[in-house]
Specification:
Strand content: 15-25%
Number of helices: 14
Shape: globular
Helix content: 25-40%
CATH topology of the largest domain: UDP-N-acetylmuramoyl-L-alanine:D-glutamate ligase
Number of domains: 3
Amino acid sequence: MNIENQKVITPAELAPELNTPPENPHHIHLMGICGTGMSALAGMLKEKGYHITGSDQNVYPPVSLFLEELAIPIFQGYGPQNLHPVPDLVIVGNVITRLNPEANELARLKIPYLSLPQALGVFAMADKKSIVLSGTHGKTTTSSLVSWILEVAGLSPGFMIGGIPLNFATSFKHGTGPYFVVEGDEYDTAFFDKGPKFLHYAPWVTILSSIEFDHADIYRNLDHVRESFRKLIEIIPPDGLLIANGDDPLVMAESKSARCPVTTYGFGEGLHWRIGEIDVREDFTRLTILKEDEEYVRLETPVYGRHNVANLLSTAALSEFLGIEPGMFQQALKTFQGVKRRQETRGEKKGILVLDDFAHHPTAVRETIRAVKEKYVNRRLIAVFEPRSNSSRRNIFQAQYADAFDAADLIMLPKPPMTEKIPPDERFSSPKLVKDLTSKGLNAVYCPNTHDLIQHLLSEGRKGDVILIMSNGGFDNLIDRLLESMDNL
């Protein structure tokens, strides 16, 4: 078909009546297929027997290899030709803008379309009770914990997680049981639906870990963020449950709008679920969980760090609500292997341990560094941070980052990537952060690029060190390059 001279129809003209799945679709096309959630959905749909194609601007490992293994063809870049032959349904990722040429062709052809959250509801969550893990921090780890607890308890959960739980080695699972576990992301849904994703997930139980300002590219201020979480809380049904972090004042304030029961967890006094004794060692954490100040269970787990222990507490409250025996919960926590890129051990060379973490918000950076320092208390900690997320590349958190690295012994920062579209006066400055850190007496170094970072790490690293790499992206393959270079020393 010749599509060169067709009338341009903007995505704003997408027909609302086509925002619904057709009966018995065969060919489903995903725009923005290489996103974490979109690639997981593609795999899930492929396993269900649909013919899947996809397109993306950024096609690179590991997602490209994952989709290649599933025999899912990917079109490099976006264009009208990617919708020929015409699919039965198009799923539009939230990276797609109104100016996207493929979105224009979608509007012109009048193909049925869905957002990722809508598609997840239709193809994976129908007839399931949804367990939604929400909050500014901790969603991926808590989703993985919940999924593994349900699996150990024999409840065969379905799930879709924004990371790869090492117990499952996949970010999605259909599951034959009654529950579906999903990360409740507050990010916007699609260019035609600017509401948060989690409003599409019909939450039955919601764990709410924290409310902070984030996603400065879509939220105006903290009140705007709170408004989204308030809407989520209000749609939990009366027979459901809100499991709220009692240590977070904003979570507690917003939980007052719940129509369902609310149970609280955390370290503070007077909460329903609390931690009693805790002992953190290099190989495990031993702790006691209290319910209403009475011992509920004692356990050993590889989970460590104050923030992750709080996540663990929330899953104890969920387990009891679902009728899971404490012994099963205990077994699941002992055998939990963690999540890729969440304090993940990537290797140890020449006596130097290298960890990989997804932290990017200043709170997550601070808590991750504290957790690693607490676990490896007798080892020097080198923290390497790439300010890559939409918020961290902006100076909105410039001052907060200056208080995020206190527990590190040496800090290294590169130039933020992809700042071209950010006005110069709104850009984050790594040299400024290094100056602020050194003025506090901390040892901080600016290395403009990953080559310089690697060279500095090789010259500075010594036996016994822990190198913690933090980025929400690929970081120019820094970790693999570093480990390879360490082999050659």
